[in-house]
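Hi there,

I know you've been waiting on this one. I reran it after we fixed the sequence typo, so this is the corrected version. Both the input and the resulting structure follow.
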Amino acid sequence: MRQGDLVTRRSYGGDIVFKIQEIRQQVAVLRGVEMRLLADAPLQDLEAAPQYDPFQYTIPNHPKWMEAMRRTQASQAAAVPGGWPAQASAAPTAAAAAYFELPGKVLHLDGDPNYLRKCMTLYGELRVPAEGYYVAEANMADALYRLLPQVQPDIVVVTGHDGILKQRSPGDISQLSSYKNSHNFVNAVRVARQYEKSRDALTVIAGACQSHFEALLQAGANFASSPGRVLIHALDPLCIAAKVAFTPIRETVNIVDVIGLTHSGLEGLGGVESRGSYRRGVPRIPYLTQK
């Protein structure tokens, strides 16, 4: 076994594909390829997996939430802005064509460069304006302190890898010290809330596999993982961010519906009632430049 190899763990029945991040004295540090999980295992417990590009493990076909997002975008493009003044003689299609769109802007910090690369590709496919940065979980709070005034996002995603530690007090998962990176995500959320206190003005999505859901919400996150301390898919935080970006500001995001589109469902993600970030404007601008 070498650094960079794709492997599974025999002791867990080969349920998750990992990439070996590094090897320390016959123990491998593992990062999930599909699941946002950081783990370790003795080398003798590892079994080689097919050595494909890790991208091929992350939803090869369009998932249900991407199709749902495209339907949402199509229906908004066909709709006449409700309540806007229009001349009686103007046809609905002409009124609908007169506006421009401003989806919410995303600042995405990810502790895994492969996940970040895939997420940025999908943000582009979904027409969600986004800036992404690969930042180690321990450095996310400092990075947000610098980036938030610079990027001025509507939505912040802080995610990467997490997990419940093996060496902890038996049965005690209420303490942040029982998690690999939840305390780092909590610190990042607190920085975001120091920058903008209102959950309506800045939507914060935080956490990874098995993260301390309650602590993240208490720190100020709108959406977080993981209520059931389960694994979440690499793209689940992006799913929530994209939905918020295209939900009109006069509406709240349907929490149950959007989380139902994720891979992990309500066991993996939860949140509080939050407004969308999507705006329309008139007249149509031929060349609209996002900040």
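Quick highlight: The two ends are 45 Å apart (CA to CA).

Best,
R. S.
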